[in-house]
Amino acid sequence: MLLLRIERYLRACKMAPTRFGRDAVGDPWLVQNMRDGRVLREKTAARIIAHLDQVEAVKNFSQVE
Question: Is 8:55 a contact under the CB 8 Å cutoff?
Fold first, then answer.
């Protein structure tokens, strides 16, 4: 489910998976590893969700103006 949210965000923003991983948790291989079946620790998943919440809020705010 989290990977699906990430994939949607990447498509919407036309962002490279490595850029997202680097920005979210400092791991450029994050998305590729998740695609390959990596299971995230709870703390890592929470960091990713917080990052997505933040960047999506900023994106939504900028679209309103």
Answer: no
> Under 8 Å CB-to-CB from 55, ≥6 apart: which residues?
9, 23
User: Domains in the chain: how many in total?
Assistant: 1
Residue ranges making up the domain that contains 52: 2-64
DSSP code string of 26-41: S-TTHHHHHHTTPPPP
pTM above 0.85, yes or no: yes
Distance between alpha carbon 25 and the CA centroid of its chain, in Å?
Answer: 9
Task: Encode pLDDT of 12-61 as tens digits.
Answer: 999 999 999 999 999 999 999 999 999 999 999 999 999 999 998 887 75
